[in-house]
Design brief:
Elements lengths: L9 E5 L4 H17 L4 E6 L5 H7 L4 E3 L11 H4 L1 H18 L4 E4 L5 H9 L7 E5 L6 H7 L4 E4 L17 H4 L3 H12 L7 E5 L6 H9 L1 H6 L3 E5 L15 E4 L5 H7 L2 E4 L3 H9 L4 E3 L8 H11 L3 E3 L7 H12 L2 H13 L5 H14 L1 H6 L2
Parallel strand pairs: 1-2, 1-4, 2-3, 4-5, 5-6, 7-8, 7-10, 8-9, 10-11, 11-12
Amino acid sequence: MPDRPRHPLSVVVAGGGTAGHIEPALALADAVKRLRPDARVTALGTARGLETTLVPRRGYPLELVPPVPLPRKPSKDLAALPWRILRSVRRTRQVLRQVDADVVVGFGGYVALPAYLAARLPGTRMPVVVHEANASAGIANKVGARHAAAVAAAVPGSGLDGPVIGMPLRRAITTLDREALRAKARAHFGLDPHAPTLLVFGGSQGARSLNEAVAGAAPELARAGIGVLHAHGPKNTVDVAPSTPPYVAVPYLERMDLAYAAADLAICRSGAMTVAEVSAVGLPAIYVPLPHGNGEQRLNALPVVEHGGGILVEDAELTPEKVVDLVVPLLTSGERLSAMSAGARRTGHADADETLARMVLDAAEGPGAEEGAR
């Protein structure tokens, strides 16, 4: 195969499925465009992922491929896995040729594995860069890392051999001045401009245990003079009586930057993206890891907790009484909140997007790129 043209550079990002995979891919895409305005960036995704909304909104072309979920236990899905992989790899290879890709950047998830495999095929071969967001690497990224030109991780202990650079984040987050935006943010959501404010969110779909515990604590929080901004998820509701300061319940937060600016403390899950954003903006948090899975959410939050920027609470222990016992003392102690905010910021990596972008450019244009393309 002839050497690929160096200009314009064509980058394919594979990070579909959840916001935790898509957002770092888009942050990387933005950073590549800042460093190389002539570069073309194409996103891979599936028809059932959030990328069908998030990617076009950010102005990048999206190419759909069949998803390849990796079953954790023996099942019919496991028996069908080889065929699904083959079908998805074929489609991915077609996309890579169509956009004349120079490098593939994977973030794990349903579309990363076929992207890694398609990039290794004779006649398509090109460098691969892998970014692992979680404290425990997933199967797709373990496979991709075996032949990757470069590997990076968001936090220590992922099990992959590469530098810890942090999570690529949107500039709207890494440059956020919470103090300067606080008045605007609280007015935007209809919050009390002066009351200490708790932000509650459980990811894009919400979290029932967080919803029930915080809603149950609403009367005590109001009596303590605490306002609440609560994103309960589009399929959920919370039943809270009107109060002063206001308890503002919404299905979804379109403006997370304003939500972070409005808040003094958060109660949230500890997915990799959540931990990265919350710590980057210096927001103290009570992290409540998902009670199932491989325990990665607890591991994600540990570095922030160890630096004093957060508190870990097990899902089964989160009751209305626990919320009151933790939140009221924290939100009535400015000194403790300031110390936690500083601790959270110490674990952040505001430049992870451009660090990864430079790794991608080096992989695409370095000496190994031409060899890998043949």
